[in-house]
Amino acid sequence: MTNTILGIIGGSGVYDIPGLENRHWERVASPWGEPSDELLFGRFAGVDLVFLPRHGRGHIQSPTSINYRANIDALKRAGVTDVISISACGSFREELAPGTFVVVDQFIDRTFAREKSFFGPGFVAHVSMAHPICPKIADALELACKDEDIPHARGGTYLAMEGPQFSTLAESNLYRAWGCAVIGMTAMPEAKLAREAELPYGLLAMVTDYDCWHPDHDHVTVDQVIKVLGDNAEKARRLVMRVAPKLGPQRSPSPLGVEHVLDTAFITAPEKRVPALFAKLDAVAGRVLKKI
């Protein structure tokens, strides 16, 4: 059987994972550019972990400047088999109060200034995003929240906005009318790229505030967000330690078959494929490209 190598992408406030055995930071080069930071390698409860701070230590990358392709590619090159993403977010629902964790199951992507695919002119591929979250990972996240007695909700749609500004009131009311649960700036295109890299993906959204639809939160400030972030970040680090043993050292496949989505994704004729792009896909799509 395959061993689990759990990739953790830390969001705002989560820049390190203490308590790992044999921990060390290591730079992983990517043909897609520079990842947000070095990767932290370690082990906990017999499970290998690879941690990447999405914004870089010190929070130097904005939601738009993050090199999402390099981040996912670097995790794939590091041998990661499954990805858990941690993301700060605003809430569209009264019952999802600040401090609540949401195990997201769907997305609406409203970002527009980011590279969203590893594939493109010269090598086109299409993967399904109907069910973007792996149930195996979502189950583990939900159980970990229960173990840590963290207020949480299972299921909900994450609205990904471009940022870095917060929503207008009209936008906030629109997204509520769409039935969204939370809003954030970083889960897209991250989830799409993880799917292209055949990596099962789960997202834990940490509510820091109500979005501006709420009469008491119509002027969200960074200071307010950071205050809640500190408490959320500590909970998130404890939760990661709970999730690792639930997924276990011996890996089980995704119920969605994510590990094989590229088998039927390529559409560009072999004689028309661009060698330079083909070469850059060695980690993301290497399993399939070796057969071509």
Structure explained in plain terms:
There is one protein chain. This protein has 292 residues and is an alpha/beta fold. It contains seven helices and eleven strands. Strands 1, 2, 3, 4, 5, 6, 7, 8, 9, 10 and 11 form an eleven-stranded mixed beta sheet that branches. Strand 3 and strand 4 form a beta hairpin. Helix 2 packs across helix 5.
What would you say about this model in short?
The protein is built from seven helices and eleven strands. It has helices spanning 68-77, 135-147, 169-177, 190-196, 222-247, 275-280, 286-289; strands spanning 5-10, 21-26, 39-44, 47-53, 82-91, 101-103, 106-109, 152-154, 157-160, 182-184, 201-210. Strands 1, 2, 3, 4, 5, 6, 7, 8, 9, 10 and 11 form an eleven-stranded mixed β-sheet that branches.
